[in-house]
Q: What sequence folds into this?
């Protein structure tokens, strides 16, 4: 498991002064993204956030300021996707992180050179951080699983395998987009409870899901297993993930094989990937109620029990078209925390590879909706509106049971802990457009 090192020192400050006060991106964070300057005919390349600036990693690589493994990783990070950097593994990524940290610290002799590689974040646009070859969505919140199960299966809300195995399904990577994504309301087949036959038309119960996305790092070959003790050697980092859902389509199609068209029309990720190393200070204990089945041996280790969970605060907001038209601020819908997950990141990737399937750098693992134990911590409108039965009243007087055309959903995430610097993930934003009929 990735441990604390000098890059996490809470006393570190940067000569990029915007990183030192109330920033998602202090020197202790250094997340990665793919970007280019707005309105410029230039290639996308890797960047690292520091305060309000982004380091152009392609420009930095040409300066040959770093050496050895750090320079190798920097050159991989300067490409048009981060796949090559991810595949280099934890040691190379850690070497690059350390070199960047030293170069950005106050009184660094490299300040003058690095200044030439900085671009204000207001002047950039993001590309997809990597080529996502495969996407798997898990179902790791027992609170969400129980609440949704109660709506779909009142007499049997939580299926017996849930507490034994990380439940997941393969999604469609082609519809995953970067923050700022606008997408059309999906069309599909639905069936009302009192209808004799299904009908075909625009989704009427469109929902969001507040999730985290885990990016696979070092690849494995077909037949190669991942032991839980080494699992995080194969994880690169984490983003915020909004996995949109058409609840009425889902209710009709999900039996017997689970989600399909209700979940494959759009998913949105935040542009910045916070590395597993940056998250090292925010580890928390992983445990199960003694009355629950304990994880099987291949999904259990001492280090996973002591430090397997990640303490990440999550928040979800809505801004309707009327709010934008009247210049009103967004309204918070809920907040939760990733530490409520019933399975840890290490358990997810260990389980995923346990049948010998190859894991490739850039593959995405969705955590599933991250709901907490209280109503205020629900990660979807399906839960907040109690299946559409209880409308949510917004501050401007509008009401919602499910999402309407023109609604924008904004999600944010951050980590804070006494003795550690607060870091953030930025945000993920997307807006719903009318259905194409």
A:
């Amino acid at each position: 498991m990735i441990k604390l090192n000098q890059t996490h020192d809470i006393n570190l400050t940067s000569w990029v002064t915007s990183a030192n006060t109330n920033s998602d991106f202090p020197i202790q964070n250094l997340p990665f993204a793919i970007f280019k300057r707005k309105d410029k005919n230039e290639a996308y390349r890797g960047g690292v956030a520091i305060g309000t600036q982004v380091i152009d990693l392609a420009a930095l690589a040409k300066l040959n300021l770093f050496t050895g493994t750090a320079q190798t990783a920097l050159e991989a990070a300067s490409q048009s996707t981060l796949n090559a950097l991810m595949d280099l593994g934890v040691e190379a990524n850690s070497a690059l992180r350390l070199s960047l940290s030293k170069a950005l610290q106050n009184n660094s002799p490299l300040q003058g050179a690095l200044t030439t590689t900085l671009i204000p974040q207001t002047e950039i646009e993001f590309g997809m951080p990597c080529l996502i070859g495969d996407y798997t969505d898990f179902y790791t919140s027992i609170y969400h699983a129980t609440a949704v199960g109660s709506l779909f299966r009142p007499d049997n809300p939580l299926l017996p395998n849930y507490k034994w195995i990380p439940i997941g399904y393969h999604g469609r990577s082609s519809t995953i987009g970067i923050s700022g994504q606008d997408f059309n309301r999906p069309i599909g087949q639905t069936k009302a409870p009192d209808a004799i036959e299904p009908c075909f038309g625009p989704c009427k119960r469109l929902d969001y899901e507040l999730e985290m996305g885990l990016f696979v790092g070092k690849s494995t070959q077909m037949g190669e297993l991942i032991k839980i003790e080494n699992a995080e050697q194969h994880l690169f980092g984490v983003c915020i993930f909004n996995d949109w859902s058409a609840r009425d389509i889902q209710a009709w199609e999900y039996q017997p094989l689970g989600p399909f068209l209700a979940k494959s029309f759009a998913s949105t990720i935040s542009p910045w990937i916070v590395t597993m190393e940056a998250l090292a200070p925010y580890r928390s204990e992983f445990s199960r109620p003694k009355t629950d089945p304990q994880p099987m041996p291949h999904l259990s280790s001492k280090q996973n029990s002591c430090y397997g969970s990640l303490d990440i605060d999550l928040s979800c907001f809505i801004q309707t078209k009327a709010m934008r038209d009247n210049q009103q601020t967004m309204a918070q819908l809920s907040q939760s925390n990733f530490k409520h997950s019933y399975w840890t990141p290490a358990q997810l990737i260990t389980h995923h590879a346990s049948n010998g399937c190859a894991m490739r750098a850039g593959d995405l693992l969705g955590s599933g909706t991250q709901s907490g134990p209280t109503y205020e911590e629900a990660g979807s409108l399906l839960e907040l509106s109690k299946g559409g039965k209880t409308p949510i009243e917004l501050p401007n007087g509008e009401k919602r049971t499910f999402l309407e055309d023109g609604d924008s959903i904004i999600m944010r995430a951050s980590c804070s802990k006494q003795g550690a610097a607060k870091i953030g993930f930025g945000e993920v934003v997307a807006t719903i457009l009318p259905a194409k009929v």
Observations:
- The chain has a mean pLDDT of 96.
- The first strand starts at residue 32 and ends at 37.
- The chain has two domains: 6-127, 135-433.
